[in-house]
């Protein structure tokens, strides 16, 4: 891929907006927005800190059953890179208040007819 197709400003702005919309929904437990921003497909994958979820239905079930308290976190070292007009990778580290652990999150975003959607995600904690 030619370098001029990486991080085009308009595309990068779109993905940043989607990423931070997801982050706001995550810390406020807005499950409607969280569900909207994942690809509604059985091939969607989300590896969590303690769970492996395959398909949008398992992801929805996880979101519905997780606690809605203590979700605030501080992001650091966030890197979002776009490739062409319809694919991006978002990587970030996070810390939660009262914890010394560093979390890591990676998301693969694809621009669908309905907008930017997460097609794969990975969340883990450093030990």
From TrEMBL:
Pfam families: AtzH-like (PF11533). Transmembrane segments: none annotated. It comes from the Bacteria. InterPro entries: AtzH-like (IPR024507), NTF2-like_dom_sf (IPR032710). This is Oxalurate catabolism protein HpxZ. The lineage of its organism: Bacteria, Pseudomonadati, Pseudomonadota, Gammaproteobacteria, Enterobacterales.
């Amino acid at each position: 891929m030619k370098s001029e197709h990486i991080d085009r400003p308009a595309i990068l702005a779109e993905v940043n907006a989607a990423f931070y919309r997801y982050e706001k929904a995550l810390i406020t437990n807005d499950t409607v927005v969280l569900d909207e921003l994942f690809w509604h497909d059985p091939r969607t994958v989300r590896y969590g800190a303690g769970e492996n979820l395959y398909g949008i239905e398992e992801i929805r079930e996880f979101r519905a059953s997780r606690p809605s308290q203590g979700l605030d976190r501080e992001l650091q070292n966030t890197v979002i890179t776009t490739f062409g007009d319809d694919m991006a990778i978002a990587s970030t580290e996070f810390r939660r208040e009262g914890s010394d652990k560093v979390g890591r999150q990676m998301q693969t975003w694809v621009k669908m007819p309905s907008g930017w959607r997460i097609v794969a995600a990975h969340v883990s904690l450093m030990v």
